[in-house]
Amino acid sequence: MIDIDDFSIDMPQISPAEEGFAAGAVQLNDSIFSGERDAVVVWVKPPEPLEKTVGQGYLAAISEGVALIVEEGKLILSVGPVALGQAILSWDGIDGLATTVQATSGLGDFDITNGGTQEGIALEVASNDKAANVSVVLFSDKDNSSEMTSVIPVTSTPIVVNYPFDDFARNGNGATLTDIEAIVLYIGSGGGVSGPEVIEIDSIHTY
Ligand SMILES: [Ca+2]
Ligand SMILES: [Ca+2]
């Protein structure tokens, strides 16, 4: 098993100031895979102005927004009522840039299979209030990556969601698993997860 992140290193809460914006932070620590965790939280602007349909509910959503924090061993994304939120975590080596994925030169030809012994990525979900798309993306370079999306079900008890390498879809030629430069966890992929939502992730590792 390769421990990518067990979220034992805290991150103070980050939250975009308003709809249509993102906030990011970088946690530098030797105990995090590749020495650094890059985190971005997005308050997604919906395709249609919501006030036309939900009136005061939209104002309530503005006041609550979207927030991301790491505390007590968990990554927690909170999305206020009516809002749309996303979180993008990347492990791409020490670059100090939360919003940039070093897809071509991040990890330096990292073998995510650990010599052919690892079969996929496991996401340990502590709890989830609303069904949400969560993607794992592996980059060998910016044009060649592999990704898989799962719908994380509603759960109040811990579950493990597996992303088998064999089930990943290819962008370009796909990622070369023995030559990985960046690992990305994308919560709310495909337009964002709508609130009210709280999803808590315990860890991400290979299996
Ligand atoms: Ca980084
Ligand atoms: Ca980065």
Quick structural gist:
The protein has helices spanning 51-54, 56-64, and strands spanning 3-5, 11-14, 22-28, 36-44, 66-71, 74-79, 84-91, 120-128, 132-141, 144-152, 159-164, 169-171, 182-187, 193-194, 197-206. It has 207 residues and is mainly β.
List keywords for this structure.
single chain; 207 residues; mainly beta; Jelly Rolls; eight-stranded antiparallel sheet; globular; binds calcium ion
Describe it for me?
The protein is mainly beta. It has a single domain (3-206), classed as Sandwich (Jelly Rolls), CATH 2.60.120. It has 2 helices and 15 strands. The strands form 2 sheets. Strands 3, 4, 7, 9, 10, 12, 13 and 14 form an 8-stranded antiparallel β-sheet that branches. Strand 3 (22-28) and strand 4 (36-44) form a beta hairpin. The longest helix is centred in the N-terminal third of the chain and has 9 residues, at 56-64. It is globular and about 45 Å long. 39% of the residues are buried. The model is unreliable at 52-63 (pLDDT under 50). The structure holds calcium ion (2 copies). One calcium ion (CA) binds at residues 38, 90, 92, 95, 97, 100-102. Residues 36, 38, 92-95 line the site of one calcium ion.
Structural class: mainly beta
User: What overall form do the CA principal axes indicate?
Assistant: globular
- What count of structural domains? 1
Mean pLDDT: 92
Order of helices and strands, N to C? Answer: EEEEHHEEEEEEEEEEE
Give the names of the bound compounds: calcium ion
Count the DSSP helices: 2
| Largest sheet entry | 8 strands, antiparallel
CATH architecture call:
Sandwich
Amino-to-carboxy terminus distance:
5 Å
